[in-house]
Design goal:
The chain has about 625 residues and is an alpha+beta fold. The protein contains 21 helices and 28 strands. Strand 20 and strand 21 form a beta hairpin.
Amino acid sequence: MSSSNTSVQSSGRENISATRSVITQLPSHLADQIAAGEVVERPASVVKELLENALDSGASQIDVVIEQGGEKSIQVIDNGCGIPKEELNLAVSRHATSKIKTVKDLAAVATLGFRGEALASISSVSRFEIVSKSDEKGAAWRLGAEGEGAWSELTPVAGTMGTQVSVEDLFFNTPARKRFLRSQQTEFSHIDQLVKRVMLSRPEVGFKLVHNSKVVRHVLPVIDDATRQKRLAQLMGQPFVQQSLEVEFEAQDIRVSGWVGLPTFNRSQTDMQYLFVNGRIVRDRMLSYAVKQAYADVLYHGRHPAYLLFLEVPHELVDVNVHPAKYEVRFANGRWVYDFLRRSVREAVSRPVSAEQGSGRSLSGMNSVEMPTSPQVQSSMQFQAPVGASSEISSGAGFQYSGYGQSASNNEVSEALKAYSASTSGVIQRESGSIAETDEEFKLGFAKMQLHGVFILAENKHGLVLVDMHAAHERVVYERLKTQWQQQSLVSQPLLVPMVLALESSQISVWQEFQPWFEKLGFEMEPMGPEQLKVSAIPALLGKNDIAGLVNDMLADLAVAGESQQVEEKINVILSTMACHGSVRANRQLTVEEMNALLREMERTERSDQCNHGRPTWVQLSMEQLDGLFMRGQ
C-alpha cells in the first residue's frame, strides 16, 4: 500500500481512519517494564523471584524483610554462594542466567529460577540495589538502579558471604500499575502465604520473615525428626501433625512423600493443600483432582482434605517452561503421574485400623478439627436407623440385590457377624481380663458392653474405645460389596430404545480416544453424526441414572485428567445405600461375641475409620484423658 493513510469501510458505520505507525525498536528500559508485567504482578511476585534465586544459590539461611506490605521496601538476604564482581552487571541484564546453557538444559531444568529476566524486570519498576559477596577474603560489591535502565558504578562495600537484594518504592515509575495494589495488609498476606509455601518446600533451609520490624515467621533448618515435627507444627499447626499420616511411595522413577490429613481432619476450603513438584510450588488441577479422588468415600460432601506432598519426577519428564511465573508444569506422561499420585494417597488413607501408625483419633484431637456447620452436612451426621436388607451375588447375572426395603432378621445379622469372626474365633471369646502387651495387634481392643443399643464400649491398651456400631458395620458391609462388585465384570444392560446424545465435536473426539475404556465399563456407543452418539447399552447397575448427564461429566473428566471416576462413583452410591440397609441398626442388642467380631472386622477393613458418609466410626479416649475428666492426680 503506497499511502500511509487508509480508510476502512464498515457496513452501516462511518469510515474509520487508521494511520500506520513506523516499526521501531523499543528502548531497553521500556521493554523491561513490559516484561515486568509478566513477572511482577504485585510485591509477592518480587519476593517469589528473589527467593528462588536465593535457594538456587545454595543458601542455608534466608531472611525476608518487608515494609508496608512490600510497597515501600522488600529485602531478601541469603548466605549463598554470591555473585562475583565481574558477573554482577550481567546478572541484572535480560536473558542472562547461569542455570541453562543449551536447549538440552532447558528440557531438563533442575533449578527454580532460570529465565534470566527477573532482576532486569524488577529493577525497571523500582529503586533497586544488589549487594553480593562470593569470596570470603574479598569485598562485597554493590550495584544500583533507579528504574530507567541506568545502573550505578560497581562499588565495594562491607558485607557478609551471600547476596542481599533491596527493592524500594515498587511501581514508583508506573503509577497505573501501582493503583492496582491492594491494602498493605492484603499485599503482605500474599507475601506471607508465599513465604510459608517456600518454607514448606525446603525444610533444610532456615527462614525468617519480618514485616514492619516485627518477626512474623521464623523456622530453623530440619536436622532430625524432632526438628521436622516442630517445623511442621509451626507451619501446618499441631492438629494437622496429630491427625495426619506420613506418606512415602515410589514406582519406577517417580516418588511421592509427605503427609496427608486423616479424613476426619477436613476443611471447608482448599486452604491446607500444598503440593510441590521437584521442590517447585505448582498449581495443577490434574494433580489436585488426583488427591481429591483418593479421598472418595471417606469425606463429607463438600469438604476438602488437608495435605503436604512432595512429588519427585525426573527433570527431563517435566516441562516447567509453561508459565511466565513458573506456577504451572506439564508432564511427559501426565496420565501415569495422575494414577500414581491417586493410588499412593488412596493407599495411605485406606489402610485398615490395624495398619495405622497410631490412630490419632482421640477426643481431644477431634475437638480441634474444623467441623462442618451447614444444615446439609449436619443432617448427614445424624444417626439414622434404616431398614435392613440382605444382599447376594448372583453369578453370571451381574449384581443382584434381594429384599430391598425389607427388614433383615436378627438371626441374619447375627450369623453375618459371626461369619466375620471365623479367622479369629479363638480371640473374640475373650470377654474380661486385662489388656496384655501382646494384644497390641488388636487396636480396637475387646468389647465390654453396649450403650443404648448404639455404641460399643471396648477396652484396649491405651484406654477406652467408643464405636458407633451402625456406622462401623455400614462401612464393613460397603467395602465387602465393593470388593464383590469389582471381582465381577461390569454387566451391560441393553436399552429397549437406544438413546441419542447431542454432543459437541470436541466431546466426540474425546469419546473416540477413550472408546475402548467406555466399552470396558459396559457402554455400547456408536457415532450417529459429527455431533451425536447413539447409546445402545449401559452398565446394568446404572439403569435409573441420568445417562446423558453422566456421559457429559465423564467426557469432561477425560478431557481434563485423562480419567473419569463417574461410573465408579455412581455405582458406589448405590452400593452405599445397599450397605446402609444391610447393616445393624440402632437399638439392636449385640452379644459380646458379635461386638468383638465387628471390632476384628473393622481392624481388617480398609477405610473403616469413617462410615460411607465420612463421619468417624470410632474414637479413642486415653487413660490420661479419663484421669483428667475426674481430676485424678491433681
